[in-house]
Structures are given as structure tokens and as C-alpha cells.
Amino acid sequence: MCDTIVIVRPDEILFAKNSDRDPNEAQVLDWQPRQTYEAGSRVRCTYIEIPQARQTAAVLLSRPFWMWGAEMGANEHGVVIGNEAVFTHEPTSAIGLTGMDLLRLALERSTTADEAVEVITSLIAEHGQGGGCGYEDRSFTYHNSYIVADPFGARVLETAGDKWAVEVVDGARSISNGLTIAGFAEEYSARIKTTVSACRTRRRLTERLAGEVHGVHEMASILRDHGGEAWPTYRRLNGTLNMPCMHGGSEVASSVTTGSWIARLAPGAHHHWVTGTSSPCLSLFKPVAIDQPVKLEPSPEGTVDDSLWWTHEQLHRQVMRDPERLSPEIVRERDAVEQNWFADPPHGPEAFDEHRRLLGDWLDSLPDSLVDTRPGFVKKYWAKRERLAAHAYVADADVGGPMSPV
Predict the structure, then answer these.
(1) No. of H helices and E strands in the chain?
(2) How would residue 392 be classed by pLDDT, with cut points 50, 70 and 90?
(3) What is the rounded average pLDDT for all residues in the chain?
(4) Which of 151, 188, 218, 258 could cross-link to 265 by cystine, CB 3.0-4.6 Å?
(5) Are 77 and 56 in contact (CB under 8 A)?
(6) In sequence order, what E strands does 120-220 have?
């Protein structure tokens, strides 16, 4: 489950997205250069192969590690896109282009938001959308909606199978996991899944908050919101799906914010900040540029390693056992650093190095053991995910100890 927000102003476009997916589904920051291909070339997407474009734009993607496509991204021309799973009455297909494939293809093949919309709809008409999109449950399928923006405006594109609708954005607009375009939504929405996703609750909150935004740092505050509370409360049915910053933990439906992105677009000036980690409420938005790749090794996958994503995940999983006690000093230090990065962004590699240093300090500052204050069903949920993520690691779910080598 996800949220994407855009604010269209006469002199700038502000964009923000949380990508909410399965808790061990590490998200990779993937820089791809502009490339030229021979006539007749083909490209292998997540599940199917299609004809390749003669030239693709340079892109920066935030993608689940096992997918070809991406949850969000930007290209060298200032186009940014975020996608959402939506649930419709139209049948889903076992094979096709995933919504994430369509997002990446649109970024690679467009120079404007309108071109990107045309790329997505043309590809749906030609190849269809489909394929399993879940990490824990690969049979999980859905249709997709998008916010597509460039320095001059933004569009909402919503789909249901091979059908779609487009809306030009004026002012603040957000999308979650339900159709929203008048007429199209009433005709194609699947009521039960849309309700369980709590998308309407999140959309009302994010759109209201977006209407009060004055600067980039306030976009970060929206992505960090826990439904108006300092820290999440958990529901048995759908965990934290009612809040933009998700932390998992339910008996039925659940997601975790595994990556976040903010962009400010203006003619001739494109600025981007990404977490490259889960849980924006505990992470830092680091400045990045499409033409300045940051070397991030190792590249994270589904089990614990020394990557930035998994190192931050150790902090996230420990702090969330008792966030009121463990988070205050971390958040204060994070805010002081990040305030400077929004006002005067450093070179990307410097910011990533500083985040790693801070992570080391924060992890060292945590107690060796602590009481997990969350409900029992949340502890059970996370104990299972920590076992799945462990590989050569173990986690003491009872005392809340860190994931440590066997």
C-alpha cells in the first residue's frame, strides 16, 4: 500500500511518495544512464519481454530488489512518477507488464508528463498489465494508478485492466490505493479490498496536509505522519494501513514503508531527496541527482546484510519496540542534520556517508535489551519476519535484542 502526493504551483511542483510493501522487501536505488539501442532490440521486464526503444533517458529508480520495474523514480528531463496498487472489478492477469514496469518504461521513454501518460496507456493497450506483484505472496495482483509530474504540471492516471482515466492536477492532490477520478472510480472500484486498504483515510489526511505545505521539509512531515499521533497504533485487521508512515503488524493485511522520495521541480531545476531505507520517521531524506550515481554496496536483497537498507532496518526494528523511549534523541539529531540538507543540499555521497555514520552511533546508543511495548499480535508478526530475514542471523523477539550473527 502506498501514498503519492503532488502540489502544483505557478513556479514549482512538489512531489512526495511513500512506497509501502512487505517488510523484508528491500528497495534498491538504481541509477541507469541514457542509452541507445539497435533497431529490433528487446527488453526483459519483470515477467515479459517487449520491444526496446531506440533511446532511453537517464533515470534514478527506487525499486523492490527483485523487480525490473520501480515504485517511484525520476528521469533526466524532470519527469517524476509514483504508482499505487488499486483494486477494481476488472479481472487481473497472471502475466503482463506490472505497474512498476510501466512506471520505469515511462520514465525511460518520455520527456514530459503527458508523454509519460501516453507511454503507459499505449503499453497497456499493446501488452496488458499483470503479473504477481507481492514479495511474500507472488500471486498478489492488482491494477495501478499514478501521479506523473514534470516542472510544468502533473497528471493523475488511473487504470482498471485495459481502461484508464486521466485528470489534470490543480493545487494539492494525493492518491492512495483506491480509484479517485469521478465517474471512473464509481464504475470500476472493488469495494471490499479498497476498504481494507484504508486508502480513503490516508488520502483525506495527505491531501489536507498537502494543502498546508509551504516547503519541501513539510512534504517530509506528511510522509512521516502516523495518523496524527506521535507513533503508530496497531489494528488487528490491517495493522497501520490507516497512516502514511506504515510499520506493519496485523493478522490479515499489512505493509511497511520500505522507501520514500521527495522532489521539487521547477523549469531548469530538479531537486530530489530519498531515504533509500524503510521508515521515513526514523530515516534521513538525502539529496540525490539523476546524473550523479552514489555507490551503494552491497545491494540489499531479502535477508540481512551490511547494506544501508538493512543497517537502517536494524535500527527501525529495535526502536519500534518502544519508540516513545528510544526515538527522541535520534529524531532530534536527524532533524538538525536534515534541515541543513533541505536548505543547502550537500553532494549525494557525503549525505549517504553521514547517514551511515549516524546509524552506527544510534545503534550503539540503544540498550542491550528492552521490553517490547507493542500488542502481542504485532510481536508475532515481526518475529516471523525477523526469522525470514535472518539467514545467518537471529533476532531475540522476547527481549528485543538486535539481529546478531549466529
Answers:
(1) 11, 19
(2) very low
(3) 93
(4) 151
(5) no
(6) 143-150, 153-160, 163-168, 171-175
At 159, which amino acid appears?
A: T
Domains of the chain: 2-302 (3.60.60.10)
User: From CA 357, how far away is CA 16, in angstroms rounded?
Assistant: 26
User: Which amino acid does the sequence have at 133?
Assistant: C
pLDDT tens digits along 96-151: 999 999 999 999 999 999 999 999 999 999 999 999 999 999 889 999 999 999 99
Taking the C-alpha atoms of residue 74 and residue 97, their distance in angstroms, rounded to an integer, is 19
Confidence band of 402 (pLDDT split at 50, 70, 90):
very low
Split at pLDDT 50, 70, 90, the class of 180 is very high
CA-to-CA distance for 221 and 210, rounded, in angstroms?
10
Three-class secondary structure of residue 358 per DSSP = helix
Q: What is the mean pLDDT of residues 288-305?
A: 95
Active site residues: 2
Determine the residue type at 284. Answer: L
Is the separation of the CB atoms in 217 and 342 below 8 Å? yes
Give the residue among 244, 359, 381, 310 at the shortest CA–CA distance from 26. Answer: 310
Looking at residue 167, its amino acid is E
The pLDDT of residue 391: 65
> Over pLDDT 70: what percentage of the chain?
96
Q: Quick check: 305 and 360 in contact, CB under 8 A?
A: no
CA–CA dist 226, 249 (Å, integer): 14
Q: What is d(CA 324, CA 93) in angstroms, rounded to the nearest whole number?
A: 44
The CA-based angle 387-304-17, given to 5 degrees, is: 100
Rg (alpha carbons) of the chain, rounded to whole number? 20
* DSSP string computed for 72-95: EEEETTS-EEEEEEE-BSSPP-SS
DSSP state of 143: E
Helices 348-365, 328-343: axis angle to 10 degrees equals: 170
Distance CA 134, CA 238 (A): 16
Q: Say what the pLDDT of residue 302 is.
A: 95
CB 171 within 8 Å of CB 153? no
CA distances (Å), 189 to each of 4, 131, 180, 200, in order? 19, 20, 9, 12
With cut-offs at 50, 70 and 90, classify the pLDDT of residue 390: confident
